Putative K(+)-stimulated pyrophosphate-energized sodium pump
Amino acid sequence: MSLYLPVICGVIALFFAFGLSKGISKESSGNDRMKEIAAYIHEGAMAFLIREYKYLLIFIIIVTIVVGVLIDYKTAICFICGAIFSILAGFFGMRVATKANVRTAEAARHGQKKALKIAFSGGAVMGMCVVGLGIIGLSILYLGFDKNVSFISGFGLGASSIALFARVGGGIYTKAADVGADLVGKVEAGIPEDDPRNPAVIADNVGDNVGDVAGMGADLFESYVGSIISALTLGAFIFTDSPTKVMFPLMLASLGIIASIVGILFASNSKNNNPQKTLNTGTYIAGAVVVIGTGILSNNIFGNFRVFGSIIAGLIVGMLIGKITEIYTSYDYKSVKKIADQSETGAATTIISGLAVGMYSTMIPILFIAVGVLVAFYIMGGANNVSMGLYGISLAAVGMLSTTGITVAVDAYGPIADNAGGIAEMSELPSSVREITDKLDSVGNTTAAIGKGFAIGSAALTALALFASYAKATNLSKIDLLNPVTLVGLLVGAMLPFLFGALTMESVGKAANEMIEEVRRQFKSIPGIMEGKSKPDYKKCVDISTAAALKEMILPGIIAITAPILMGMLLGVEALGGMIGGAVAAGVLMAIFMANAGGAWDNAKKYIESGENGGKGSNAHKAAVVGDTVGDPFKDTSGPAMNILIKLMTIVSLVFASVIANHGGILLNLLK
Amino acid sequence: MSLYLPVICGVIALFFAFGLSKGISKESSGNDRMKEIAAYIHEGAMAFLIREYKYLLIFIIIVTIVVGVLIDYKTAICFICGAIFSILAGFFGMRVATKANVRTAEAARHGQKKALKIAFSGGAVMGMCVVGLGIIGLSILYLGFDKNVSFISGFGLGASSIALFARVGGGIYTKAADVGADLVGKVEAGIPEDDPRNPAVIADNVGDNVGDVAGMGADLFESYVGSIISALTLGAFIFTDSPTKVMFPLMLASLGIIASIVGILFASNSKNNNPQKTLNTGTYIAGAVVVIGTGILSNNIFGNFRVFGSIIAGLIVGMLIGKITEIYTSYDYKSVKKIADQSETGAATTIISGLAVGMYSTMIPILFIAVGVLVAFYIMGGANNVSMGLYGISLAAVGMLSTTGITVAVDAYGPIADNAGGIAEMSELPSSVREITDKLDSVGNTTAAIGKGFAIGSAALTALALFASYAKATNLSKIDLLNPVTLVGLLVGAMLPFLFGALTMESVGKAANEMIEEVRRQFKSIPGIMEGKSKPDYKKCVDISTAAALKEMILPGIIAITAPILMGMLLGVEALGGMIGGAVAAGVLMAIFMANAGGAWDNAKKYIESGENGGKGSNAHKAAVVGDTVGDPFKDTSGPAMNILIKLMTIVSLVFASVIANHGGILLNLLK
C-alpha cells in the first residue's frame, strides 16, 4: 500500500488542481472588451507553446535516439516521460493562468479578497500540476522498472530539457517584449504602460505567462524531480536491503504535497486583508506541516531524527534565502534606497551601485548554503560514512523543495495579478480596479523575487546532490583539484555561466531590437493607431517574440548539453567533475548576483515613482529607468538561465556517466 | 659563479634603470607653468606614498609579529624584505614617472619620437626596478638562508601585501579622482578634461601615477616573485640532489631581464614612426631572446626540451591573452563597435551590451589558460610524475612573466603619456603638442588594456602554481570535491571575488562622492575660479583621494588576508584548498569580465568621439559616457583588485600552511 502512496498523493494534487481550475472557469470573465483582450493573451501564449512544441518534437526525437543508442531504451523512455510530464504541467498551468488573469480583473471590481483568491488559485493550479505530475511520473517509472533507480535520471534529463526551452526561451521572450514595448511605447511615443495602442502590449502580457508562469514552473519542476532522483539514486546505493528506506524521498515529497494543499486552502480562505501576510502564512503553515510530518516519518522509518535534521536544514535554508533576497531587493530595506539615492547623480551611479548590491548580496546566501550542506552532511554521520552524508545533502534538497506546490502557487500568482492589471488598463476599467490589481501586483513583485531566490537555492542544492550521484554512478573515488585536468575542468566550468550570461543577454538585445523596429513600423504605417481609432497588429509582435525566443535559445542550449559530454569525452570523468563544480559555484553566484541586482534596480525605480528622490519624471527617475532596463534581462533572462545551466549540465553528466566512464578521456590518453 | 648570476642580472637591471633615470632628468622640464603643474603632481603622488607608508608601517609590524610568532623569524625577515623591495620599486618607479611626464610634454614640442622615447624610458625605470629588486631579493634570501626554500614564501607575502595597498588603494584613488573630476567638471560645469580650473584635476593626474604606475607595478612585482617562489619551492621538493636545477627559475628570470633590456634598447632607438609598432616590436624581440635562451638553458641543465616546452607554453599564452584583450577592447574590432551602435538606443543598451561583451570575452582566455596548463603539465611527463607536471605549470608562470621588465615598461608608458597630455593642456601648450601626446596616450590605452590582460593571466597562472606549492607544503594528497567540506570551501571561495568587487566598487562611489562635494564647494566658495583668476585648492582634493583610498582598502584587505586563515582554522587544509580553487576560478573570470567590459566601454566612447554613431555631443555619446563611467571602477579598481585577491589568498595559505595543517580544522573536529 505505502508503495502507491506517492502516486495517490500525486493524483490528489491533480484532482485538487482540477477542482481549482473548475472554480476559476465558473467565475465571470467580464465584459466583451475584457474577453477580447484576454483572448489575445490566451491565443498568444498558446501560439508560443505550439511553436515551441514543434521545436521540442525534433529535439526530443534526437535526444531519445541518442540516449536509446548510447545508454539504454529504459532511460530513453524515462527521458520521454520527463519531457512530456513537464510539458503537461506547463500547458495546464499556463492555460489556467491565462483564464485566471481576466477573471481576477473582473473580481477586482468586487473587492480585493476575491481577486486575490482567483489569482492565487490560478497559481496553485500550476503548483499542483508541477508536484502532482512530478511525483506520479517518478513513482510509476521507479515501480515500473522494478525499483531500479539507474534509469530515472532520464526523467530528470527530460525535465531539464523542457526547462531549458521554457526558462531560457521564455526568459528571452518576456524581456524582448517588455523592453521593446517600453522603449518605443513609454519612452518614444510617451504612452503609458499597458496601453492598448502599443502593438507590443499583448506580447508583453503573454511574456509574463510564458516566462514567469511556464518558465518558472518548468525550472522548479526540474529542481523538484532532480532532487528526488538524486536522493533515490544515493538511497538505492546505501539501503540495498530496505526498499522502504529507498522510497523515503517519495514519501517525503508526498507529505510535502499534502502540506502544500493545507497551506493553499488556508491562504485561499484567509480572512486577512493583507495579501502578503496571507501568502506568507500559507507558506509557513505548509512548512510547519512538513516539519511535524518529517519528524514522525524520520523516526518511524529510520528510527532516529538524523534524517529529520538534514531535511529541516534544507527547508530552513530555502526560506532564509527567500528572506535575504527580499532584504536586498525590496525598497523597505536600505540597499534599494541606496540605489535610489545614487540615481540622483545619474545613470552611471545607478548602475554601479546596483551592480555592487547584486555582488554583495551573494555573500549571505552562499554562507547559508554552506552551513546547510555541512549540517545535512554531518548530522547524517558523514564524517564516518561519506555516502550517508551525501545522502543527507540530497535529502536537504528534497526538504527544501518539499513545499514546491505552494511555492510555485505563490510565485505564479504574481504574473496573473500583473496580467489582470494589464487587462484592466486596456479595458479601461475604473481606477479602483487598477488600484486593487496594482496592490496585488506589487505583492507579486516581492513574491517573485523571493521565488527567484528559492529557485536559485534549490537549483544549487539539487545540482550538488546530483553531483554526488554522478560520482557514485561513475565510481569516482575522488575529484581532485590537485589533478590539473580537474583544475582545467573547474576553470572552464566556471567560465560557462559567464558565456551563458553573455549569450542570453545578447539574445534579449537582438530580439528587443526586432520588436522595437516592428512597433515603430506599426506606429508609422497604421493610420489612426495613436488616436486609438485603428487596432495595432498584436499578432505580429507576438510572432516576433516567439520566433526570436526559440531561435536565440538554440546556441546556449547546445552549449549546456554538449559542454559536459565534450569535456568528459576529451578529458575524462574527473575533469568533468571539476567542470560541474566550477559551473555550479560560478553559476549560483552569477544567478544570485544578476537576479538581485535586477530586482533591486526594479524596486529602486518603483521607490522613486512612489515620490522619493524627486519622484516620477525627475532626473533620478530617468536614471532609475536605465537601471530597471538593464535589470530586466538580468533578473528575468540571464539570472534564471543559470539555474537551468547548472542543473542541465549535471543531469547530462549523470545520464551519460557510464558512456563517459567507459569511453571518455580520449585526449587524456593521448597526452599520457 | 652561476649562483650569483641572478643577483648580477638584478644589479644590471638597477643600473640600467639608474641610467635611464639620469637620462630623463637631463631633459628640459619646460616653462615655469609646466614646472609648477608637474610639481603639484609630483608632490601629490609623494603625499600619497608617504601617507600610505604610515599605514604600511603599522601593517608590516603587525604581520611581522604574527608571522614571527606563528611561523618563524626567517619567514618574517623574508616578509619584511618582500614588502620593502616592493615599496622601493614603487617609490623609484613613481618618482621617475612623475619626472618623465612633464619632460614628455616638453619633448612633444620637438616631435613625437623624442616624446615617445622619454615616456617609454620612464616606464622602463619602473619595469627594471620591478624585475631587478625582485630577483635580487629572492636570490639573496635563497642563498642567505642556505638554499632552504621554506622561508621565501614570506617574500611573496610581503610583495602581496604591498600590492594590496598599491593596487586596491591606488585603484580606489585613481577612480575617485577621475569620476569626481569628470562628473562635476565635465558634466556639471562644462569645462574640458584636464582644465586647470577644475580642483580635482591634479588629483586625477596623480591618480594615473598612483594606480596605473605604482599599482600595476606592485601587481606584477607580486606575480613575478610569486611565480618564481612557486617554481623554487616545487623544484626543491623534486631536485633534492641538484641545486643547479632548483636554481633554474632564477636563471630563467635572469635571462628574461637581459631579454627585456635588449627589447627596451631596441624600442627606445627604433626609427619607426608608429609608436604602437615600436612597442610591440620591442616586446616581441624580448620574447624571441627568451625563447632562444630558454632552449639552450633547458637543454644544458635538464638535458632535454621538455622544460623549454612548458616555459614557451606560458609565454605564448601570456601574449595570446594580451592579443585577445585587444580584440575585445579596441575599436578596430567589432565588439566595441557593437557597443557604440547599441548606444544609439540609450544608456541601458550601452550597459547591457558592454556587460555582454565583458562576459563573452572570458571564454577564449580561459580556454588558452586551460590549454597552457595542460601542455605545461603533460609535456613535463605529468601523467607519470605529478610533481614534475606541477613544476611544469609553475615554469609556465615564470615563462609568462620572464619578460615582465619590458611588459611593465610598455604598460607604465601609458599613464606617463596621459599625464604629459594633462600637463600640456593645463600649461596651454600649442595644440600640436597636445596632438602628439594624444596620439601617444591613445596607444597607451591599448597597451594598458593588453597589460591588464597579461596581469590577469599571470595572476591566474601564479596562483595555480602557488596552489600546487600549498598542497606540497601541507602534505595534501588530494583536494577532493566529493568531500562536502571542499565543496563548501569552493562555494565560499567563489563568492569572495563578488564580495571584493562589491566592496571596491562601493568604495569608489563613496570616495568619488566626497570628491564631487569638495569640487562643488570650491566652485561655489572660491571667487573667480571659473574665470581662471584664482587658483583652486588642488591639495585638498589630493588629500580627499588619499584619505579615502587608504581608508576604503582596509576592509577588503582584511577579508583577503583573514578569509583563508579562518577557513583553514575552521574547516581544515582541504576546505582551504577548495576555497582557493573557487576564488581563483571565479576571481580570474571576474577580473577578465570587468577589465574587458570597462575597456570596451572606454573605447566605445572614444570611437563615438572620433565621429561615429553621431559623434561627440550626440545621444549615443551621452549613453557611451555612462558606459565609460561605469567602466572606470570596473577596469581600474575592481577588476585589477581580483588579481590581488587571488594571489594574496594563495600566498597567505602557503605561508600559514604549517600552522593550518597542524592546528586547523577546529570546527571539523567538533562535527566529527
User: Anything to note?
Assistant: The radius of gyration of chain A is 24 Å. Chain A touches chain B through 83 residues (CB under 8 Å). Residues 30 and 208 of chain A are 21 Å apart (CA to CA).
